């Protein structure tokens, strides 16, 4: 399921990145929640208490100030932060509901929840005669009523009476004529989430994401290099890795290099034994051949000669196997594959062998070692004659950047379950072998050479039965 892959990716690097990012987001969410609880329970309570104390102190002190100088006095004692308004409140001001006024803070969705809570706490802490209102916006304000002096309230009421309608006087006479309004900015008491704060939070999150990406890359880089090395080992191109990263991945790289060294040593030992054995056997085989020729018994002579031929054939297979394993000495050069194949088929036909080309040979170039490719085709044709039945059909097909050379016989073929084992060295399949003197190295030699050329070998069932061996090589660019 695609959604499950997105939630829990498959690669180790993506999982580490997802784990680190999720942990950071969860930690930040819990931190913000804890800060919000602290701000609500302690910080906001302390701010409200300090604000209420300041308001009460100002309410008590302003009684001693002359009515005409109250506004200037408020600005002076608050260092220009607070103001005393003698006019009406702004239209967007919202009163507390429990004061019985006509506007309610809960009815305005534009007010932040924290502002409503602040106004409610201030309203609850002040005396019953005080009225509290609050405005929202980029610059929120808290308004607290301050009783006017009696003569000042009367003068203001017389000045505003001719201009006010009866309904206005009935609705807001008390709020206009009898009180002033103390305007307190709330940007310091309850600052909103500003754009700069949001950008800073996103920037820190992006920086943490980059750190998480670097961390996951640093952890998985040795694993990725080791994966490429194992794929190269499976393809026949062993390469050591450079141990790096944490202790565990470093030890894993060192263990892989030690395994490569052990494999190389075992391969060299095997190659030395296989290389020495055929050469050591050639001398005794030559002497046996001479003695067989000196034998007078025709029947004994024929039997010994057949056994000797089988032994010599096995020696030649050992030598071919050794040459096929030595892929490091291949001399790759541009080769016109269709022309080369036509020459090989004609050579076989001159020997009266039933080898034919199926279809037309499309011009195609490959990078190959001609001698090694000669051994590949010779092994496939000899294997077809020995284990199958003639005629042997050869075809050449190009598809994209690959070309496939197919060799098909008309024998009984190999069962699908045994085909992979047939490519292994010293594999001897009784169902595919009709004669003795076979060491089971032919197809393995073919596969080793083809892999060294960057290709692959696949065993299939032919169109007319029998075994078809497909050798796929990359086209030269």
Automatic annotation (TrEMBL):
Compartmental location: Cell membrane
Ranges for domain HAMP: 217-268
SUPFAM superfamilies: ATPase domain of HSP90 chaperone/DNA topoisomerase II/histidine kinase, Homodimeric domain of signal transducing histidine kinase
InterPro entries: 2C_sensor_his_kinase, HAMP_dom, HATPase_C_sf, HATPase_dom, His_kinase_dom, HisK_dim/P_dom, HisK_dim/P_sf, Sig_transdc_His_kin-like_C
Pfam families linked to this entry: HAMP, HATPase_c
Cell wall biogenesis/degradation in keyword set: no
MF (Gene Ontology): ATP binding; phosphorelay sensor kinase activity
CDD domains, sorted: HAMP, HATPase, HisKA
Listed GO CC annotations: plasma membrane
Catalytic activity: ATP + protein L-histidine = ADP + protein N-phospho-L-histidine
Superkingdom in the source lineage: Bacteria
Annotated TM spans: 198-217
Domain named Histidine kinase: residues: 276-477
Principal EC category: transferase
Keyword Transmembrane helix: yes
The EC number(s) this enzyme carries: 2.7.13.3
Name of this protein: histidine kinase
Gene source species: Orrella marina
